[in-house]
Predict the 3D structure of the following.
Amino acid sequence: MIAYAGLLTFSCLLFPPGSAAQPLRLAIAGLNHGHVSGFLRAAQQRPDVQIAGIFDPDAALLDRYAKAGGFASGILYTDLARMLDAVKPEAVATFTDTYSHAGVVEACSARHIHVMMEKPLAVSVKQARSIEQAAARGAIRVIVNYETTWYKSHGEIWNLIHERKAAGEIRKMVAMDGHQGPKEIGVQPEFLSWLGDPERNGGGALFDFGCYGANLMTWLMDNRRPIRVTALAQTIKPDLYPRVDDEATILLEYPKAQGIIQASWNWPYSRKDLEVYGQTGYAIATGGDSLRVKLGSAREETRTPGDRAPDERDSLSYLAAVVRGRIKPSGLSSLENNVIVTEILEAARDSVRTGKTIALTAR
């Protein structure tokens, strides 16, 4: 990996101080969400991004990441407020447990620093509203990062099914997301410790993977809330996940459509698939680059999705575009969408607890 000092020198050569194309000055808040590893590797390979500071309250975890990534000790902090005041980042990328998102946003709001966090937004609607209010107070952008946001296949579904309405009105959406289980796939111990904690994660597979389908369906439904939410959750492996669910199905009812979200830590393999059915056709995405389409009487065909716009190809490009004012957060990454996602997940959790269908519009 590129050491921090070398990256900074290279960045400054390409983008002299004061240049309009100066690298995005980015800080990292939290290291106990496993996705931070890939994010840091991607950031270190980009001359348009400068990692200005890294925070985590666990000094040993900080040291581990510093050694792995070649980060200088001078940018490492065990106090969030101190880091924000010292390095003055343009944006913060948050990799804490979900429960801690609200605290990071509060700290950044007070300093007018934009925030991107790993999915989902919050563990409860109360927390989601708190984040929403903090963002408004600080006049900051808060965006939520999902791997599936950057899938070419999903961009093609949006253009074909939503924009062009090539299959008529949407009638059914099916999202299948998950893997064999976090312990089974070997996630980092600090990540596993909170994924199985209902307070810090919001639930188990219900929140960890149910959020993907809720996010995509809210997007395809133009941020309309479903009328009713019904959910079933089980703990099939209580020896591994004694405190949370590992299997969940969520049903969303819209006035003229249904959504089926299948979230699992029991799939025989990792998957993030989306099926969208309209009045006269369908589009099925299996992963980011594979798309099958059938429209009207035509035969099903496999399509190669086109590239996304440069500012929408990955989370770092999108964050930089938002911070620099080139685009306004919308759709899958937007706070508006993700507050609704939290409402859906909380209703699903309540449905599991009570065994009843939850009327979302009445909440």
